[in-house]
């Protein structure tokens, strides 16, 4: 087989366009050195202008072919170097997490990652070896072309010129050393395989007690990994998506839904506790026997478990409770409920004050509308004033109701102030309604 055909046949399909155009260069030499086509042949001792012109053209073509191959080799070597550097970073990060496993068996997901990075490192090594073979093939192609040119033109000037000015340069791809890439590839492969866990299963049990040999399970190399998240890394090569049948099946967004539900449970629990505590009877109205039965015979909805008898009697001390909270010896003390009751009383007191303030403000607004209303807009002014009076009475009633709700825990001073304010607001609102009736009269 001729070298041009062998060069094309042995090259990788995706790298074939970057090969030296060996057949075209060979045909170009034949076209300018054949006698039948009237081309000049070199005569020893004489300068051939046609041959000198052809040498310049052929030299330029050789330089262009060399630069194209050199650019490809440089880009490919840089790409492999970046891939190895990236793999070095992720492998170091993966290996740094191994000491924190605390002796636990490695998860299937981490095993898959080991297999994935091992395969990617192997591909980098194959690319380095293929690139070295590609460089050797192109070097041989240039050597053969120059040899044919020297044989058919009987001139060594172009051969010496191309060797000295192009191939002998340190930047030429023929001088590029791929050994550092091979060293990085082997070191990285050794690192990951030294820490890769053994995936082979235990040997199968003996078939019988008589024979002394055991049937060993042959280790099957792992030929798949999960690349669903980074499927683009496979490029044009086929890859397999592995689905673990033992994995817990969840729908997309399950974590988000569970987070929202857990956040809703907190305010719902507070509302439930509020409603439950409002319906419960005061501690001083509960029977002691009921508290004892609740402790000794817990029901299904009891909050505290049954008492456990011990040899040591622990006496409850009032010094163990924060100041401002009462101690109850007829049942288990609940500081949380007492805090909640104090918070509820404070909220009701603030709501009562806000209701009366709003009622007084609405009363003032209605009064200003009546005093400053124009005669032409009397109907609109009266409607606005009536709405203000109704809203003022509503807020005053709400404030008075808040005071009645906490009637058992309110002092006589607060009762007097709330009652007096409610009475004054009602009288003033009634007086405004009388003024509105007189204004709308005939």
TrEMBL record:
The keyword Magnesium does not apply. Keywords: Membrane, Transmembrane, Transmembrane helix, Vacuole. This is SPX domain-containing protein. The chain crosses the membrane at residues 347-371, 383-404, 416-436. Signal peptide: none annotated. CDD domains: SPX_YDR089W. Residues 1-163 form the SPX domain. PANTHER family: VACUOLAR TRANSPORTER CHAPERONE 1-RELATED, VACUOLAR TRANSPORTER CHAPERONE COMPLEX SUBUNIT 4-RELATED. It comes from Calycina marina. GO terms for cellular component: vacuolar membrane. One of its GO terms (biological process) is polyphosphate biosynthetic process. It is a multi-pass membrane protein. It is found in: Vacuole membrane. Residues 193-216 are annotated as: Disordered.
């Amino acid at each position: 087989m001729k070298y041009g055909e062998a060069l094309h046949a042995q090259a990788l399909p995706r790298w074939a366009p970057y090969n030296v155009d060996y057949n075209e260069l060979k045909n170009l030499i034949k076209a300018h050195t054949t006698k039948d086509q009237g081309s000049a042949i070199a005569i020893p001792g004489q300068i051939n202008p046609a041959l000198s012109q052809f040498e310049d053209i052929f030299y330029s073509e050789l330089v262009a072919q060399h630069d194209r191959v050199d650019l490809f080799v440089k880009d490919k070597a840089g790409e492999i170097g970046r891939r190895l550097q990236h793999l070095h970073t992720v492998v170091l990060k993966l290996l740094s997490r191994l000491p924190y496993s605390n002796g636990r068996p490695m998860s299937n997901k981490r095993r898959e990652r080991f297999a994935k990075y091992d395969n990617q490192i192997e591909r980098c090594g194959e690319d380095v070896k293929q690139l070295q073979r590609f460089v050797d093939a192109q070097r041989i192609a240039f050597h053969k072309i120059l040899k044919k040119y020297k044989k058919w033109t009987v001139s060594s000037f172009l051969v010496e010129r191309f060797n000295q000015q192009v191939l002998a340069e340190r930047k030429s791809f023929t001088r590029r050393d791929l050994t550092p890439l091979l060293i990085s590839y082997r070191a990285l492969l050794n690192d990951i395989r030294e820490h890769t866990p053994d995936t082979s299963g235990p040997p199968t049990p003996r078939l019988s007690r008589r024979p002394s040999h055991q049937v060993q399970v042959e280790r099957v190399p792992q030929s798949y990994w999960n690349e669903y998240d980074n499927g683009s890394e496979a490029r044009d090569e086929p890859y397999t998506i592995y689905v673990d049948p033992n994995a817990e099946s969840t729908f997309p967004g399950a974590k988000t839904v569970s987070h929202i539900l857990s956040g809703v449970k907190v305010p719902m629990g507070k509302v439930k506790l509020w409603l439950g505590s409002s319906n419960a009877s005061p501690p001083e109205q509960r029977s002691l026997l009921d508290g004892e039965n609740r402790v000794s015979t817990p029901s299904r909805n009891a909050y505290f478990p049954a008492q456990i008898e011990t040899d040591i009697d622990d006496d409850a001390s009032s010094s163990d409770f924060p100041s401002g909270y009462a101690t109850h010896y007829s049942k288990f003390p609940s500081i949380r409920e007492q805090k909640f009751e104090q918070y509820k009383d404070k909220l009701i007191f603030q709501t009562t004050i806000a209701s009366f303030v709003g009622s007084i403000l609405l009363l003032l607004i209605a009064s200003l509308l009546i005093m400053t209303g124009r005669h032409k807009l009397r109907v609109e002014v009266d409607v606005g004033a009536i709405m203000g009076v109704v809203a003022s009475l509503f807020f005053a009633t709400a404030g008075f109701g808040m005071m009645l709700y906490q009637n058992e825990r309110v002092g006589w001073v607060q009762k007097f102030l709330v009652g007096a304010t409610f009475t004054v607001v009602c009288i003033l609102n009634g007086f405004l309604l009388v003024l509105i009736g007189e204004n709308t009269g005939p």
